[in-house]
Amino acid sequence: MYDLLIENARIVDGTGAPAYSGSLAVKDGRVVAMGSVHSREAREVINAAGQVLAPGFVDPHTHYDAQIAWDSLLTPSAEHGVTTVVMGNCGVGVAPVQSTMHAFLMGDLVNVEGIPQHVMEAGIDWQWEHFGDYMAAMDRRGLGINVAPLVAMTPLRHYAMGEASLSRAATGDEIATMTRSFTAAMEAGAFGYSTTREGVHVGYQGKPVACRNASADEYRALCSVLRKAGRGNVELTLKLGGVANSEEHDFLELLVRESTRPVTWLAVVNAAEQPASYEERIAAVADLTGWDRAVPQTTCRPLRFQLNLANPYILGVFPTWQPVMRLSRTEKLAR
């Protein structure tokens, strides 16, 4: 007897095959029959009445790190058929965190991801210090979909270095603190870590996000944690426009070599005025590409940014705008 039988569905199985009509049976949490299912004995039977039945989408690039504190369904992803999200991308997030650094982490998310400050102040209760505490808080709230959380390198540096993370590389002792914290996060179930080298990523007070100040030794230390664990991956925002130069290629190679884990990087997106640009980007790192090495991220739609002058976060790459990024909303309106 099956646990669940879904009948009269329009099945899109994710292999690229055309949709077809049929049934699907589940037992002990696994799909055991699909298409023509001869037995109708099941504890629960659902008539799909021609609706689409498909695997859930996995979204590898989201920024729900703050939102998950007040919205366990992670809307609107679930409404679009996403059943698993990877969050903590681009080196920004909300854990680990010292109690004195809450404003820094929120400032990073305001300027990098355009999340309103007042929403985070109302919605985040900061019931955590370590990354494992953060994951436990998610579990207590309950999750509407699956979550694979990355440890963002900027809060990791803030945690180990305080405000100094905004201006310099870490010392040996600070690297040791980051390594211990990241090791504990991986043991608690973290998916890996994320970082960015993209110039548009300016954070708290309009300064470059802290992971942009990281040294090669810091990356080697975090990669060694993944190598020893034998699992997890690195997410890297390498550059949003143009082809990777030799220094960027070498940095990507360092992460692949030192971690021995997949390094997913972005962005391979096309430009209307340069229709072959994505091919040039891939060609520049072709020697590093592979499912277990460097894996490019792209988009299924054109990349669009929404902003207003209250929070012109995407303009933070320009020096003339950086003083504006340091102002509060009230100060911006006053000027």
Could you walk me through the main structural features you see in this protein, from its secondary elements to its overall organization?
- The chain has ten helices and twelve strands.
- It is globular and about 65 Å long.
- Helix 4 crosses helix 5 and helix 6 runs parallel beside helix 7 (246-259).
- The model has no long low-confidence stretch (mean pLDDT 92).
- By secondary structure, it is an alpha/beta fold.
- It is 30% helix and 20% strand.
- It folds into two domains: 2-53, Urease, subunit C, domain 1 (Roll), CATH 2.30.40.10; 57-237 and 305-334, Metal-dependent hydrolases (TIM Barrel), CATH 3.20.20.140.
- It has a seven-stranded parallel beta sheet. Strands 1, 2, 3, 4 and 5 form a five-stranded mixed beta sheet that branches.
What are the main properties of this structure?
Urease, subunit C, domain 1, five-stranded mixed β-sheet, alpha/beta, 10 helices, single chain, 335 residues, TIM Barrel, seven-stranded parallel β-sheet
